[in-house]
Amino acid sequence: MDPFLSYLADHHGVFTRAEASTFGITDNVLSGMLRRGEIVRTHPSTYRMASNPRTWHAQLRSASLSARGVASHRAAAALWGIDGFPRALVEVTIEHGRRVVIPGVKLHRSTQFALRGEVEIDGIPVTGCARTILDVAAVVGPRRLDQAVDAVLRQKLLTWPDLYDVLVRHSVQGRTGCGKLRRLLDVRFGDTAIPDSRWNRMVADLLVDAGLPAPKFEHEIRTSSGAFIGRVDLAFPGRRIAIELDSARWHLNSASFARDPRRKNKLIVEGWTVLTFTWSDYVDHPAELVATVAQALHIS
């Protein structure tokens, strides 16, 4: 395969004039390709092969190259595959002070552009994972940030020290996102019980919002003799109440505890109350879900 075509195949058909020149493609050749409709101009000095669709990846790479920036914030989270961030927004960070306007693109200007930790994912320049979480903290609420941190820890993309390190390196007065991330780390740094899915965190938040105590995540349960029975999504150990959330949509472990009657029976024998809820319970009957848990906790 022609080296240039091979390069385009790995980069969504998007390229700059400078990249083309490294393959020996002159401006005259590019002009001819434009006239013949073989390429389309996406931004000044940025092109896409006409045979390549205008996908989200293509738009993000094109915007990043044109702005001389990197994919960032929610777009970067989507590229990293962080749970809960769809491939929808086109967000790019550029150096502070640069005057760039690209219609349909959310541009962020950073005085800490040098700390972006740039890598390439799917042929697109993107902020490092830790910097991505800090940037995300600036544009989402505390609970969404909680879920994002759960995801990067669960997916083993980052560790607690990684998160603290990025905070310290970027921590300057007025730096958007630092305050929210610092508050999260002050409360949660070193947590070993990370929710198995974002839904676990969402249900826990629902219970807390209703005035119930905060449940434990991923709680291991053993018999009185110390034999391991299983791990449940949420638990109130002091009340011996286990909550299982039964949904293939959210659970990472397809052989979830709720679908193992033998383990459930062992729990009941050990004196635990086991409550099982589905996605429909959460979406369609949240008040009933809360009331059931409150009744089990003997909270009126």
SSE diagram, text form:
Elements: H1 3-9, E1 14-16, H2 17-22, H3 27-35, E2 39-43, E3 46-49, H4 56-67, E4 70-71, H5 73-80, E5 91-95, E6 106-110, E7 119-121, E8 124-126, H6 129-137, H7 142-154, H8 160-170, H9 178-188, H10 198-209, E9 216-222, E10 228-236, E11 241-246, H11 261-269, E12 273-278, H12 279-284, H13 286-296
Structure characterization notes:
41% of the residues lie in helices and 19% in strands. The protein has a 4-stranded mixed sheet with strand order 9-10-11-12. It has a 3-stranded antiparallel sheet with strand order 1-3-2, sandwiched between helices. The chain is built from 13 helices and 12 strands. The termini are far apart. It folds into 3 domains: 52 residues, no CATH class; 129 residues, no CATH class; 99 residues, 3-Layer(aba) Sandwich (Endonuclease, Chain A), CATH 3.40.960. The protein has 300 residues and is of the alpha+beta class. About 2% of the residues have low confidence. The longest helix is centred in the middle third of the chain and has 13 residues.
Keywords:
alpha+beta, 3 domains, Endonuclease, Chain A, four-stranded mixed beta sheet, about 300 residues
**Number of extended strands:** 12
What strand order characterises the main sheet?
Answer: 9-10-11-12
User: Per the principal axes of the C-alpha atoms, what is the gross shape?
Assistant: elongated
Mean pLDDT: 90
Report the β-strand fraction as a percent range. 15-25%
Coarse structural class: alpha+beta
Q: How many structurally independent domains?
A: 3
Question: What is the straight-line distance between the termini?
Answer: 71 Å
Helical run tally = 13
Main sheet summary = 4 strands, mixed
The radius of gyration over CA amounts to: 24 Å
